[in-house]
Amino acid sequence: xxxxxxxKGSLSTIILKLLAENNKMYGYEITQKVxxxxxxxxxxxxxxxxxxxxKLEAEGFLEVEMQRVDNRLRKYYKLTQAGTKEKVSRIEExxxxxxxxxxxxxxxPSLG
Amino acid sequence: MKNLxxxxxxxxxxxxxxxxxxxxxxxxxxxxxxxxxxxKHWQEDPDQDFETLLQKEFKKFGIFGxxxxxxxxxxxxxxxxFQLVKKEAxxxxxxxxxxxxxFLVWLFSFLLLQKEIGxxxxxxxxxxxxxxxxYSLIKFHKASAHKKKERGGxxxxxxxxxxxxxxxxxxxxxxxxxxxxxxxxxxxxxxFAVVFALxxxxxxxxxxxxxxxLPAKKEEILLKAYPEMKLExx
Lengths: 112, 234
Known about the structure:
Largest interface: A-B, 28 and 34 residues
Distance between the termini of chain A: 38 Å
Helix content of chain A: 55-70%
Largest sheet of chain B: none
Number of domains of chain B: 2
Order of helices and strands of chain B: HHHHHHHHHHH
Distance between the termini of chain B: 27 Å
Largest sheet of chain A: 3 strands, antiparallel
CATH class of chain A: Mainly Alpha
Oligomer: heterodimer
Shape of chain B: elongated
Strand content of chain B: under 5%
């Protein structure tokens, strides 16, 4: 998708959703997973992903875990309890938004 | 599968430093990202050149490179630090600490209401406070330089925040003086004395939190924020 502005506001919701499904993930893994799920349609840029992750961590929605992998350290992100709750409300919000947009882009013919 | 060598990992750390990533915690995350991306390329073609792949992956961060990542991380850590201060400050509104706060407010109001002599006493206390703030900042600076050396030159962002915020909050000592000129001219003297006493007490508590309470818990706070510190020690 060329217009990244369209999904920028939903980036943190996407992250929360992925973490809820995969328990714990690291940054690069998230970018790859999104690419895989959307068959390359959605490309999360590195410059946007990490700021979003750090913001969610600061808000208390994510916690981190470090692991030594090969000869380097890897930082995994996991949802906190507050993060799990936040995920539910953000998904609902996103679904409502999609419905609203659909209503504008594809209005149902009225019976009246 | 072809993995990065220790030297190549070291080169990635150096690369992040060259691109203005000063903090070890942010460097570590970026190094793992770049390394994972390079290894992914090698899965397809193991003969691809390491440096070329590094440049290719770095370009994906956009024209500002790592700047946005560092800036957002700084903001996030600042927020975390303020939350720590807020948590400690709220303790002063609970029993038994609230008695100390009430006593200080009363004491300063009482002194200020004595006018001349009270003013001299309060003024002297504030001058002592300024000296204390400067002394603490110097002590802070020395301690963090020593820690950095101990950790082999690694700087952790939250640790830096302790220093920076110390400086910022330290500046607050001047604040009651600034308010003094405004309050004195706009409020009846009794009210002014109470407002001024509240401000002085607030600045005392703030300094006590920033220079005494939080530094005492610093290692514990850092370990919570950076689980990798434990791994580093192993």
